[in-house]
Amino acid sequence: MPDRKLKVLIVSQYFWPENMRINDLVEGLVQRGHEVTVLTGLPNYPEGRVFEDYRRSPRQYGEYRGAKVVRVPFFPRGKRSLTLILNYVSFFVSGSVLGSWKLRGREFDAIFVYAVSPIMSAIPALVIGKFKQAPVFIWVLDLWPETLKAVGVLSSERLLALVGKGVSWIYNRTDYLLLQSKAFSSSVKKYCTREMPSERLVYFPSWAEDGFSSLPSEGSPLIKLDPYSFTILFAGNLGEAQDFPTILAVAEALRGKLAIRWVIVGDGRMSGWLAQQVTERGLDNVFLLGRHPLEAMPPLFATADALLVSLKTNEVFEKTIPGKVQAYLASGKPILGMIDGEAARVIEEAGAGLASASGDRQAFAEIVEQMALMTSPQREVMGASGKRYYEENFSKAKLFSSLEGLFRQATLRGES
Prior knowledge:
Blueprint: E1 7-11, H1 21-31, E2 35-40, H2 52-56, E3 63-64, E4 67-71, H3 81-102, E5 110-115, H4 123-132, E6 136-140, H5 146-150, H6 157-171, E7 176-179, H7 185-189, E8 201-203, E9 230-235, H8 244-254, E10 260-265, H9 271-280, E11 286-290, H10 297-302, E12 306-310, H11 324-331, E13 335-338, H12 341-350, E14 353-356, H13 361-372, H14 376-393, H15 396-415
Parallel strand pairs: 1-2, 1-5, 2-4, 5-6, 6-7, 7-8, 9-10, 9-12, 10-11, 12-13, 13-14
Antiparallel strand pairs: 3-4
Helix pairs in contact: 3-4, 8-13, 11-14
């Protein structure tokens, strides 16, 4: 007898048309025959204002790849700390109250939370899970309150302790905690005051979206292939945590020494600063392409000789594997990492590239120069090694099957 179709609720503050990995999971679950509903807010990341296309025609965004999308109103992120706080608070309040109302009469076998910051976005799932008597799975992608301290949002130990109590409240009412990094385990356990059985604390890493495993040979219309330059591509959020001052310093230092192109794709709080610095310093070897949809990324990857991942150093970031690492590995391109901890371990263990310590300008310049001087076959060996590691450790098919198994296991436990 075939396994029955599952009814899954996904709770995520961010969702399509925002470019998030949760979009991929939703599509994957629908393709596996399950009935999926998404509870989310209004698309406004990363610009901080509701997308114009959505404002013009919100009804077009009520379904995604066969999944029903239920949206609740909240304050957009804006560009200030106050509006960001209002954004966080308004989603969990609106999601808990209006979300519960909009989902009245619906039954679910499992509730899955895409828990990037803020962790409070899990509260609507816990409220709805209580009403529906459904197990709640939180995919922990960010460590709170440690991340708040690491990025300088909060420095008061009293306030951090208060947030920690909130995190503990959430974790202790969750059925399964899924950890994107093995190094998260000790931090998460610290906030679990009730005993969390080992089978409910699960390592569940990220995967790469479709398209990265087979890059187009013709490259991208956004930037031409250049056989005479070593092209380094950074793709993702342009924030303070990515340490662009060090990246630009190295780009400037190596400009007269080697023919290197630095291609930066993405958007974020550092976008304006980057554009200003590139202009003021005359960095004609740095190309800022802005934000582009996910489908534009594989062709852009194809134009690169190496892919760059960077994070400032602190104990939180050391435990984190940025989601782009899996896409980089899957692409078969060598990786340059200015990063510590788990991500550096993965790059080195996979033989996928070279990594230097976070913030170490000299060491980073040295590995950039080292890779730029390699032959193409040498870099291809690194890329192929990374791709094999991806298939063995981060394959989407394997991870989705694992999650599906967890959902069924929880359903059987609830029925017994």
